[in-house]
Design brief:
About 40% of the residues lie in helices and about 15% in strands. About 25% of the residues are buried. The protein has helices at about 5-10, 25-35, 55-65, 70-80, 90-100, 120-135, 150-160, 190-195, and strands spanning about 45-50, 85-90, 140-145, 165-175.
């Protein structure tokens, strides 16, 4: 598929068929993810791939808030059909350590030096590569987060150390009919002239 087609056609898919995703495609998703740009070539990311039914069920049990409302229950009913879940995690410590090394010029691990948390930025870039790879393979995918209140249960369920923070999850599978409806179906895409400022900031 042409790159521009991948960019144009990518959507968040929220319901999948029961057709499995071949292991070699899951491997390609992960190989492409680690090609993402990352500050200082820190590579401070990890990926928890959940492809077995019992592992996915353990994930949903750990991360579903108690007393979920009707809207969340509808979302969950679709998302639970995904045959592949990849939890994308990042390590802040890895970045603080990397930039305290001599080739970076800092002599301490002061988090205040960082204008934004690049550990999550880089994990997001890796996630986008997985979303694009899925589409290139003729699949659908969706990126979503784990609620702050559910992170401790997620850690316990999968033995994830405190150093590793989940940035989000990429769900992958064969799209089901009607599985791509979401906010874009209710909100217009802003035209470039509303969001692009050329040369200097221009009031809109």
């Amino acid at each position: 598929m042409e790159f521009q087609d991948v960019v144009r056609r990518r959507r968040m898919v929220r319901r999948f068929t029961d057709e499995p995703v071949p292991a070699e495609i899951v491997d390609r998703l992960l190989r492409n993810a680690v090609r993402a740009p990352n500050a200082g070539f820190t590579q401070g990311w990890s990926f928890l791939a959940l492809t077995e039914p019992q592992d996915r069920e353990r994930f949903w049990t750990a991360t579903t808030p108690a007393g979920s409302g009707r809207e969340l229950s509808t979302w969950l009913a679709g998302m639970r059909t995904a045959p592949v879940l990849v939890v994308v995690l990042c390590s802040k410590d890895a970045y603080l350590d990397r930039y305290a090394r001599p080739d970076k010029g800092w002599t301490d691990r002061d988090e205040a030096r960082w204008p934004v948390p690049y550990w999550h930025v880089d994990a997001g870039m890796a996630s986008l590569l997985m979303l694009q790879t899925a589409l290139d393979e003729g699949l659908g995918a969706c990126f979503f987060g784990i609620g702050a209140g559910e992170v401790p249960r997620f850690r316990e369920a999968f033995g994830v150390p405190d150093e590793w923070a989940p940035t989000g999850v990429v769900a992958v599978g064969h799209p089901a009919d009607g599985g791509a409806a979401g906010s874009p179906s209710r909100r217009r895409r802003k035209p470039l002239e509303e969001v692009v400022h050329r040369g200097r900031w221009t009031p809109r």
